[in-house]
Amino acid sequence: MKSYFSAEFFTGNRRRLREQTRDELIVVTAAGQVQKSGDTAFPFQQDTNFWYLTGVDEPDAVLVLDGAEEYLLMPEL
Predict the structure, then answer these.
(1) Residue 67: helix, strand or coil by DSSP?
(2) Of 17, 34, 54, 68, which residue is 20 to 30 A from 25 by alpha carbon distance?
(3) Cβ-proximal residues to 41 (8 Å cutoff; 6+ apart), any chain
């Protein structure tokens, strides 16, 4: 998916969050894939808070902010 936002947009969002929380440990999880039935899933829609901080549109990812350190954990495909 093409993003109309730069990497600096998402970096700035995470920086402002860390400033407001005084660099405490923050863990933000992405939305997961939701099953409609045994063999059909609903169309995936990312959690807006996760997307605002990362720009990532993949299910089941995790963002960890620990002071100045940032980790994006992606599920194995």
Answers:
(1) coil
(2) 34
(3) 33, 34, 35
Q: How far apart are CA 45 and CA 37, in angstroms?
A: 17
β-bridge pairing 62-66 and 26-29:
antiparallel
Token output for 25: 């440990």
Please give the single-letter amino acid code of residue 58: E
Q: What is the pTM of this model?
A: 0.82
Angle 72-73-76 (CA atoms, 0-180°, nearest 5)? Answer: 140
Question: How does pLDDT run across 10-69, given as a tens digit for each residue?
Answer: 999 999 999 998 878 999 999 998 888 888 888 889 999 999 999 999 999 999 999 889
